[in-house]
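I had to read the description of the data format several times before I understood it. Each protein is reduced to its one-letter sequence and a matching series of backbone shape codes. The format is easy to grasp once an entry is in front of the reader. For illustration, here is how one protein appears when written out as sequence plus structure tokens:
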Amino acid sequence: MFRKRNGDINWRNIILLGLALICLIVGVTLLLIDPIKDMKRQKMTNDMYESIVEAGQTTFVVKSSGNEVSGEEFEYYYGEEYEEGGAADYKTIVAELPDEVVLTALGTIRIPSIDVDIPLWDDATIVSLRYGAGRLKGTADPGQEGNMTILGHRMRAEGKLFHALGDVKIGDTIEINGIDGKNYVYVVDTIHEMVTPEDLDQYIDIDDGTGKQVTLVTCTPLGVATHRLLVVGHLKE
């Protein structure tokens, strides 16, 4: 039998060690992708919010690719891209987006009980919902008679977007601070905890006849998104 001399290199072990290191690096990279993406998206959201509040900025140009919300292909519902007769395929919508899109600020939305204070966009699109909440096109304006429907993602990370919407209680307030300086306070009086996406139509009619109303919509259960959680309030006169 032949014995390895001192100083001989065991290439097999080196190769195995190299493969292990590569697997470790790839694994760590995959684990960090979403947190890094979330941090970047959150910084952009915070910067936009400050520009709306402090400078009254109304429009923002952002790239349509990047900063995607994890699971948005399953959570997306309605919005500018929604077409009569059914929602277009997510991949088709994304593929047809221009390289850059313009977000128009309606103001900000504040829910004191769950520490939400984020931009409110004048449309609920795939891109706009990455950086705040969005008013569904065709529904009421703030303070207007009818139902203003606002969509937002149920983020998994605590404190992000509508993550804690499930903690809102009857009697809590929803404050819409318009870009024009007008403030509207809605008091929560109804909560629908499990609405199927197919039944949303009956909750978002602008002429619902219940006065000056706001309806917040997000996914539920958290991380599953099979149903929708609706929080409804009426304007405090």
